[in-house]
Amino acid sequence: NKMASYSHRDRSGIYSFSSRPRAVEDRSRTLPPEKSRPMYGNIMFDRRVVRGNTYSQHFRPSTAQPDPAEIRREQVSKQRTSARRRAREQLLQPTTPEPVQGRKHMDVQTELYLEELSHVVVTADMECQSDAFLDRPPTPLFIPAKSGKDVETQIEEGELFDFDVEVQPLLEVLVGKTMEQSMLEVMEEEELASLRAQQKAFKVLRNMEQAEVQRLQEQERRRREERERRIMQQREALRKEKETVEKIAARAYTQQSLVDLLPTVFNSLRTHGYFYDPVERDIETNFIPWLMEEVHKNLEKRETARKLLDGRTNTTRLCFLF
Hints:
This protein is mainly alpha-helical.
């Protein structure tokens, strides 16, 4: 039962290291009290952490050596920036449009005074053949260097746990919990079934009670309507009876009053001239006024004749006197 750490090289020549699991020793018992607490480093005091604006340009310290790869990257970035700037300037410069079909562009002097172009740039073409690309060799495998010390642990007989003995309480707990959970689930299902049955019975009872309540309400409503209808009929009968009594009393009072009222009214109407004889009224309204007018005219004629006769008589008398 001896367990130890070991290291070896496999057939491919790769170094590998493996160690069996072991208990972590408690260093707090071996270290002094002031060093038993673990020390945590503050990242803000690390020189590798950049402080300030991360978008600003970082200046390399004067003592640091420039990195060739970084210098090359900066040069490449500058070249790309200048190439983009030149391409942008070329795109922004005004260019002559393409010639139409059948024509071509020619260089023409636009100066006021013509001059001979005698300067000719000599150009030549040259070629150079480069070597073919070689295949890159395979990257060698990384073999870490061995570090640390090998540790071994001696385990005596009986120190390791016996699976059959140690697993029994765990198995009992798992089985007990499973059985308990199963029993709880079964009891919960039975309780839910009982609750559903009670709810169903309660719903049936409630529906029956609601139906009975509705029946009683409908019966009470019919009774109330019948009572109101009977009360209205009784009130209508009393009203008609009272109206009939009042009519009879009014008729008797009217008959008793009209016994003496009728002759009095007729006499008053006759006195005021509402009841008259048509012949008498015609004589009074037409004949007598006409007769009076004619008598008045005759009297006026007679009066006039008499006055005229008296005037002639006086004249005759005067004549006789002369």
